[in-house]
Description:
single chain; alpha/beta; Rossmann fold; 2 domains; globular; small monomeric GTPase
Amino acid sequence: ALTVRFLTRRFIGEYGDMEFIYSHNLTMDGREILFHIWDVPNSQEQAEEGSSEEKRIQWADSFLLVYSICDRASFNILPLKIQFIKAAKEGQSQEKVPIVIVGNKRDLHHQRVVSSEEGRLLALSLDCGFYEVS
């Protein structure tokens, strides 16, 4: 849903568990930037497909990992995913891989189970960026 919102400026309430690759041109500061976004929903099946996940990691130049502030499990898997990404990407070069952690559903504060502080601390401890959005 965040990807569709970024690409179209529209919000979609229901979003399936489909994997898509999107391309999008954006002009920033007078420069044209071409994004290729591999949108991968998280599932238990994918967690077991190590080679598929490694292929996606090798394909990407940066990572945006999204969790729901209303779902502790989606937050708890982030450290392992980030360690996997860093091992795969940074092991090949000395360059730091750009990773941003995003807490989604900020508007559902009454259902929050993961605090903003927890998100910020995790990002700080893993040397990642951090945002909360709704």
